[in-house]
Amino acid sequence: MVDWLLLAATLPSAPSALRVRVWRSLRATGCASLRDGVYLLPADAPTASDLRDLGTTIAEAGADSHLLALRASDAEQEAGFIALFDRSAAYAGFAQKLKAARSASRDAADAEQRQILRTLERQLEAIVAIDFFPGKTKDSVERSLATLAAEVRLRQSPGEPSQVAGSVERLSSEAFRDKVWATRKRPWVDRLATAWLVRRFVDPKARFAWLDSARKCPRGAIGFDFDGARFTHVGDKVTFEVVAEAFGLRDDPAVERLGQLVHYLDTGGIPVDEAAGVEAMVRGLHARHADDDALLAAALPLFDSLHAALWSAP
């Protein structure tokens, strides 16, 4: 049986600011309304503490407020409670937005495509955050959004590697020193961050070759971030994460957090606070530097600063 919280509140008609504040807060918790002034929420919902705080706020404002803990009297009543939290309509509305966005993104500029994708991700996160009894509909729209994200990345970064199964082999950096590392030209976040990782932690004298075609990788070069490369996507890990794991760098907490950021910008997933700013910076570097060696030289201080910031972050 589900444990529930029930908030009963009677708000004065004036001042209206209190009513508006309470209404917005109730909506943010994702609670259901049993009737006017009576609101229900699963006791284990992530927003349950917000509902408790709201009850205190209402009482402190001089209004009538009661917060009760309860259980349904039987399975039928509990099913009725759970039905109040059906998010099917919200997911259906999101699916329509997703369908329209897929058509709009095909002819949009790169920056606009990324903005469309980020907006959709935030909208879906908001629905999922208050979906306390998720079902197949949630899984379906998440798969559809992941498909759109893959389409956008493929348009913006042709040749993006596919995932390969297996584990990441632990390696010594000694065998990878003073080498040429090769990847696809016009590197985006994963390739730039991986090049930074190699230069700073694996091969300080690394040189880089930027390939028109992954099939033209120079003999003896260490390929990364393309199908068939020595280092590429393994399982759900992007190339940065694979290189970090291969050379034992994930013990560095800033490298680990940077890997989460790169992963999000490359393949999506769990949002990272710094992602939008880093994406904007990399986009600016691309606009300023047509030469890939110059692009990497400009990107190295960016990732140095990110590493330092993430190391000191709480």
Q: SSE order, as H and E?
A: EHEEHEHHHHEHEEHHHH
Largest sheet composition: 4 strands, antiparallel
* Uncertain residue ranges: none
Number of strands: 7
Mean pLDDT: 90
Query: What's the number of helices?
Result: 11
Q: Could you say how many structural domains there are in total?
A: 3
What percent of residues adopt helix (DSSP H or I)? Answer: 40-55%
Radius of gyration: 25 Å
Briefly note the structural class of the backbone.
Answer: alpha/beta
**Percentage of residues in DSSP E strands:** 5-15%
Distance between the termini: 38 Å
Shape, principal axes of CA atoms: elongated
Strand order of the largest sheet: 2-3-1-4
Q: Could you outline the blueprint of secondary structure elements for this entry?
A:
Layout: E1 3-10, H1 16-29, E2 32-35, E3 38-42, H2 48-60, E4 64-71, H3 75-83, H4 88-106, H5 110-129, H6 136-156, E5 180-184, H7 189-202, E6 207-211, E7 222-223, H8 239-246, H9 253-267, H10 275-288, H11 292-312
Parallel strand pairs: 5-6, 5-7
Antiparallel strand pairs: 1-3, 1-4, 2-3
Helix pairs in contact: 1-2, 4-5, 4-6, 5-6, 7-8, 7-11, 9-11, 10-11
